[in-house]
Structures are given as structure tokens and as C-alpha cells.
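tool_call: predict_structure(chain=1)
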Amino acid sequence: MAGAGDGDEEVQWCFSQVKGAFDDDIAEADIISTVEFSPSGDLLATGDKGGRVVIFQQDPESKTQPLCRGQYNVYSTFQSHEPEFDYLKSLEIEEKINEIRWLPQKNAAHFLLSTNDKTIKLWKISERDKRPEGYNLKEEDGRYRDPSTVTALRVPVFQPMDLMVEASPRRIFANAHTYHINSISVNSDHETYLSADDLRINLWHLEITDRSFNIVDIKPANMEELTEVITAAEFHPHQCNTFVYSSSKGTIRLCDMRASALCDQHSKLFEEQEDPSRRSFFSEIISSISDVKFSHSGRYMMTRDYLSVKIWDLNMESRPVETYQVHEYLRSKLCSLYENDCIFDKFECCWSGDDSVVMTGSYNNFFRMFERGGRRDVTLEASREASQPLAVLKPRRVCMGGKRRKDEVGVDSLDFSRKILHTTWHPHDNIIAVATTNNLYIFQDKH
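tool_result:
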């Protein structure tokens, strides 16, 4: 079974935890819209459609117990975004969190960026376990004292208190995007980050909120000539001048900010020519890229379109070096998927910590893992039936037609309302988190 750093030894994935209520009646605000591990893997953040961010912390005691490594407890919950109204355009701005990105940790506090459709916020998450006491001009309950009653000066002292985790907004980056933000990415210089919407990409400094630099603008002079939009963007993990952005036409453009201030002219264009014999009415829709991610090494990048995951070598633009079919059995169902709008679902993808395995979601609460080099691939399911502690996940198979075996699922019985769009992999360990509607499942390998 697919897993990172396992050589020829098969990794057995097992259930660790599930977060969220098992209600059939799910509130729209509780639907998870993004998940992201911190750079150390100690924290795991989720954002939802209600504008909330929930942060889970790896149980410190469980780190030394291999079977309990995947135990995460609620660390902090806060309201990141509120619904707003654009009075100029008479548009409601949803509070839904589109993306969360952690900043590298530099001190005891943690910092993360969260964004909805229009506004990006920098949050500081810090701990407090002491409080000052013995003020001269304030009583212990906070009331101010009459200065005339102060007869002696006291030196305030810190007293221990119950641990309190505070989330405070340090910066708010607003009013820079006309269209909906789909991506944010922190640069490897740890000073700047980019934000991308449908037609433009902006470069921000983390300390400056009142201006940003427009580095990509694909908006045509006449909007009737618009043929493609930006779907995702990401900085290179090691080269601070390099970033990529993907489009709805299935192309990926790599840009070098050293070449010019406005990167409308790309340095490289990654595109696979379509087989004319496979062209159909749905070709353009299913070729749209929903996610792009650099490998940790920076040598490769992965893209996710509707039916497949592709691995590209940055040194070869003409075609991907690896292509993995996620749910090819849906090709015959594209018409019904178009009618119920599922064909527009945006699946994310992620790399294992050592770049040896890639993971992405599918329907029926299935998620797929592919070992690089085509050695093995597996389909697993996040379900409440298999949510016993350390229960080993059984591989699932989808039957295309004909006689169905006992352990197979018929393609006609797949539930398209149960889907895994958001997945994330611990940066250094075989621990993964997948979001199913309002539940967050955490799995680990069984060592």
C-alpha cells in the first residue's frame, strides 16, 4: 500500500481520529473548505464555510508513542472572517475560508495567513500561562484606583495561570482583488507572499498592508475575448524569484520575477497536447487544473485536473513525466456529472514528506495514493464504519461493469455528494488528514 519512505515494504494505513459531528443534517457553515499542516506538523489547521479557523495540536505525549502519533487535540478556534457586503457592486462577500498557509515559525508564536474571496489576514497564535498582578493604578478586578489613595509603589509580578491560547489579527490585506482569490502562497524569503484571483496575481510584503504589486494580469481589454482564467498559483519552495500559475485551459506557466516586474511573459509553458481522438464536449472542462503543488525538493510539480494527477519535471515542458488516473471510470459519466455540477469540483492534491507518494481525493469519500514510479497505487475510504482506533483501512475497488465482486463498489452506486476535495500530508511523518464535508479524518501508518 502507498506510503512515504517505505522502500518495498507496504505501508498499512489505519484510522487515528475523526473530528466533527456525525449528523445527517449538516449546516452549510460547518463544511470544511481547507486543511493544512504547519511546517513542523505539530499543528493542523482547518477553515470552514462559516469563516472559522480551527487549529489542532499533536498530543505532546503521543509523539513518543508510535501507535498514537496521529492524536490531535483542539488547540484554538477563532472567527477569521465575517460576511461582508460590497455596496459598490451590490455583492455579498462570503466568509468562507478559501485557503490557509502557515508561515515558518521564528519564535514561540505561530503565524498563519487565511483568506476568503477578497481579504487576506495574518493571524498570530500565541500562548499565555502567566498574568501580571500588583498594578499601582488598577485593582485586581480591573477597576482603576484613585491616584490620591496610592501611598506606596509596588512592582508588578507575573503569576502562573491556566494556559490560554490567543489568536490575534496582526495584519489585514484588503482591497487588492477585483475577482475571487483562489490561492495564497508564502515565498521562501519568508518576507513576501502572493495572492491570485481569476485574472491577476499580486505580490505582498508581510509587513505592508496598504499596497501590493501586480505581477500577473491576464485580463483582456475586452472581456468578451476572455478565454481562460487563473485557477491556482504557488511559489517555488527554494527559489524566491520563481512561481507558477495554472489555468482553466490545462496549462501551467512558470514565471521568473527577475526577468521583469510584470510577469505576463512566462519563462516556461507546461502543456500536454490532447489526443484528438479523445476530444469531446467536456474536454476543456475536465482539463482545467484545480491545484498545483511543487514537490518539497523543488524539482517537480504536481497538477490535478478532473480525472488525473500529473507530475511535471521543471526541466521538461512538453509533457508530464508521470500521469496517474484518479477515477477514469467516471469518463463515461461526464454527462450526468455535468448536469449535477460535480464536473466543476476542485480537487486538491498533496505530496508525502519525501516526495515519494502523491495523494488526492475522489467521490464516495474515497481518496487515492500513488507511489511514484508506478510501483503501487491504492484507493482508501474515509468512513465512520471504519473509525475504530487503529483499524486498518481496507483498499477499495470500483467495478466498471459486469459481475461485481463482494468487496467492489459499482460505479453506478457511487455517492457524488460525499467527496474529498481537501487533503494534507504531515511534512515529516506518515500522518494524513482528509476533509469529508464537515468531518476531518486523521490517518497514520501502522508501525
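agent: The mean pLDDT is 90. Proceeding to next step.
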